[in-house]
Design brief:
single chain; mainly alpha; two-stranded antiparallel ribbon; 3 helices; 2 strands
């Protein structure tokens, strides 16, 4: 009489569930988060004669926020906040 074949996994070893095993089916899938709606960015196109303080006063309600406006748009404006190029599109803080 032949001996039974040894089990494929030694006793006490961890079992890795396969897609068809009952253990795999018992594990609930991780919830998928719904993408959050992105807030629409407000922008302002610079006109001839505009300054950051004037734009901040008109668009943000406070001229003192020009530094915040500059910090957000330094890449568009450049190194000198006093030279705001006409036609540049600035992102406005919320």
């Amino acid at each position: 009489m032949p001996k039974p074949a040894p089990p494929s996994t030694p006793r006490g070893a961890a079992h890795t569930p396969t897609p068809h095993s009952a253990a795999h089916k018992a594990v609930p899938a991780a919830p998928v988060a719904k993408p959050q709606p992105t807030a629409k960015k407000r922008t302002y196109t610079v006109k001839q004669g505009d300054t950051l303080a004037a734009i901040a006063g008109r668009e943000l309600g406070n001229e003192a926020r020009w530094r915040e406006l500059y910090a957000m748009n330094r890449g568009v404006i450049g190194a000198n906040p006093e030279l705001v190029p006409p036609g540049a599109v600035l992102t406005l803080p919320s």
